[in-house]
């Protein structure tokens, strides 16, 4: 019995093909029987990475346990026995990889850029493939601008800053009010002075005709 196509490519882990068998003799006597062929999944697919190379960045000084990124590999076999994928990394004490493909920091990463290691995906039957993992370690200088911006944005998040700002605002308002008051008093005194001068001038005018009449 020979198959005419790839039975393993069917999207079922186990399925059955029903056949009818017949046999005849030289006298044309025959008999028939049924044959069920149960197709099970063979481990004929190798895990495949979604990318030939993965590149991630990491800030120097990051704490152990930091998740750096994730690699993804899939296996086209249909049964869990044959499509279960696990990961390993080539020798390194700085990174590790968990069952989900997450790259985890396990040691102090230096600025010896870039870290390049081989990541392997292997199924339960021992079929495997590899990809390249590159990790670029950056200084935190690139984050300084963001840090400064955050500090500015958070000016009013500190109680002492609010107190200083309120005092400065109140002092400015007080000075403005005092200047307005002094200006008002100055204008008022100036008006009173003009009034007094005008009054003196009128009195002088009234006295002048009388003095002329007595002479
Ligand atoms: Ca497989
Ligand atoms: Ca298969």
Short summary:
The chain is of the alpha+beta class. The chain is 33% helix and 32% strand. It folds into 3 domains: 7-40, no CATH class; 48-145, Immunoglobulin-like (Sandwich), CATH 2.60.40; 159-190.
Descriptive account of the structure:
The protein is of the alpha+beta class and 215 residues long. The protein folds into three domains: 7-40, no CATH class; 48-145, Cadherins (Immunoglobulin-like, Sandwich); 159-190. Helix content is 33%, strand content 32%. The strands form four sheets. It has a four-stranded mixed beta sheet. The chain has a three-stranded antiparallel beta sheet with strand order 5-9-8, with no helix packed on it. A hairpin with a 5-residue loop joins strand 1 and strand 2. The radius of gyration is 47 Å and the shape is elongated. Bound molecules: calcium ion (2 copies). Residues 8, 41-42, 44-45, 77, 82 line the site of one calcium ion (CA). Keywords: Calcium, Glycoprotein, Membrane, Repeat, Transmembrane, Transmembrane helix. The chain crosses the membrane at residues 162-184. Residues 7-49, 50-148 form the Cadherin domain. It is found in: Membrane.
List the topology elements.
Elements: E1 14-24, E2 30-40, E3 48-49, E4 53-59, E5 67-70, E6 73-74, H1 80-83, E7 85-89, E8 95-97, E9 102-105, E10 115-123, E11 128-138, H2 144-153, H3 159-214
* Number of DSSP strand runs: 11
Termini separation (Å)? 162 Å
Structural class: alpha+beta
The number of distinct helices, counting runs of at least 4 residues, comes to 3
Flag low-confidence runs: 144-151, 211-215
The residue-averaged pLDDT reads: 83
CATH class of the largest domain: Mainly Beta
CATH H-tier superfamily of the largest domain: Cadherins
Strand content: 25-35%
- The neighbouring-strand order within the major sheet is 4-11-10-7
Shape call: elongated
Task: Name the helix and strand elements from N-terminus to C-terminus, one letter apiece.
Answer: EEEEEEHEEEEEHH
Assign the CATH topology of the largest domain.
Immunoglobulin-like
